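Exam revision sheet. Question 4 asks you to relate a sequence to its structure. Input first:
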Amino acid sequence: MESKRFNLPSQRNYQYAYTQAYELACDELAKVQDIAQQCRRCGAEYRKTGSRRVITLEHLNRSYHITLPCVAVTPAASREAVPLKTRVLLLHYLLRAKGTPLSGTMITFKELPEGAVYFPTFAKRTLNPLTANFGEKPESLASVAGVLNGRPADYGDVAVTVGAFPYVPLVLVLWRGDSEFAPASSILFDATVTGYLPTEDIIITCEAAVWTLVKALRQG
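Answer key, structure tokens:
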């Protein structure tokens, strides 16, 4: 399947923008001829019963069902509504996935296409809250990482790897502050990440992961 870019419309009304993006993604999904192959490319499970087709996709340690032919996105284990932003993200990942094996080579956000341009937005929405909530006590990141099925990683002073999607691992890294330097953070990606998500959606994915961990910390 040819890689496509899914930019959100430039609108001040974000609800309208995401609605438009979701409708475009639904239309694109309806045109996929071999949905089973596309599910293999993105690590999703595919089942077909009569005319009903169900895709089960993992995102941040939660399972979601994407049903066809009338596209609907629902949680696998509850009846709660899936936020529109999450629905868009799930469909974008499903549609964009190339099935490229993970390389094991990690890169920073600035190494992504247009990463330098988007970095101020990325830092504001992901790195700043990550540092603000975990920087003084980096060990607290490891203590709540289980909410995203995170595992320790060998970077910085404390780091964890979480699975945003089956083929999109995120490595969240923290450095302790001292008398000379303030605490700092970074998020690393496998070099294949752009075969699964565009840069804009990578920001949204990281933001969701960080705030899930922050919520777990505050509830802990």
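Marking note for examiners. Residues 109 and 115 are 6 Å apart (CA to CA).
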